[in-house]
Amino acid sequence: MKDETLIPLIQCLDVNLKDKDSVDVTILHETGHLIVMYALDMMDYFSSITAKADEHINEVTGALDSVKGLTDVTQDYNEKMQLFADELKQAAIPKSGKATTEKIRKVKLQGVTLYLPNICRLFGGGAICRYYEIPDENMCKIDDDFIDTLLYGLGIPGTREAMRILVDIYLNSVFASFDLLTKTIYKNLKQKGTLDKNQVMQIIAEWENFKW
Q1: Which residues make Cβ contacts (< 8 Å) with residue 153, sequence separation at least 6?
Q2: Please, what's the b/e burial string for 56-78 (b: 16 or more CB within 10 A of its CB; e: otherwise)?
Q3: pTM of whole model > 0.70?
């Protein structure tokens, strides 16, 4: 069902995301995660986005963390990530034989296709704040912990800072292309506090059909 209360794109053209005095960093950070999910064709796994403070289960430690905002993924995606993590652990157990070698190869390839987009997604919150020149690295702590876990799974631990530089270069071009979509998501999230998938997809559909 169409939400008539959403702010249309045309009313978001004048949003200034570089205004340090007015921009809500939490909302911008969460918008960055969402924009990256859209850019990387991960919207099937998107659930909701909120700028409301809450408690959330840490995907790495399992502990209950206090978060300022959250871009949530589906339970299906969480289960997919957990299943692969279990397969990765099994592949790390020393074994021999052609079948085992082939399984390890497939697990490693799957890790690249599953983990690299997720790493970009996690970097997206901090990256968009850096892009709009309003960085707040304090909000990236939970993201960084999960990124470190993924990099360990890929067999390249300790490379987060080097990876951040490369991802920022790539995401800068993404944010430049999706500037109006970013402003519209940001402004609607600021107004409502939380957007569900249907509302976000409505905004995206309007942006995709927008005539300049």
Answers
A1: 85, 88, 111, 115
A2: eeebeeeeeeebbbbbbbeeebe
A3: yes
The Cα 87–Cα 190 span in angstroms is: 40
Using CB atoms within 10 A of its CB, is residue 108 exposed (0-12), middle (13-18) or buried (19+)?
middle
Calpha distance 91→192 (Å, rounded): 45
Structure tokens at 27: 């909302």
Per-residue DSSP letter, 7: P
Q: What is the 3-state secondary structure (H, E, C) of 187-198?
A: HHHHHHCEEEHH
> Residues 6 or more apart from 81 whose CB is under 8 A from it?
59, 114, 118
Pick from 36, 17, 209: nearest CA to 124: 36
Q: DSSP assignment of 33-64, as one string?
A: HHHHHHHTT-GGGEEEEE-S-EEEE-TTT--E
In tens, the pLDDT along 90-147 reads: 765 656 555 566 666 666 677 788 899 999 999 999 999 999 999 888 889 889 999 9
Residue 60 · residue 145 · CB < 8 Å:
yes
Q: Map residue 136 onto helix, strand or coil.
A: coil
Domain ranges for the chain:
22-203
Fold of domain 22-203 = Methane Monooxygenase Hydroxylase; Chain G, domain 1 (1.20.58)
Q: Quick check: 70 and 54 in contact, CB under 8 A?
A: yes
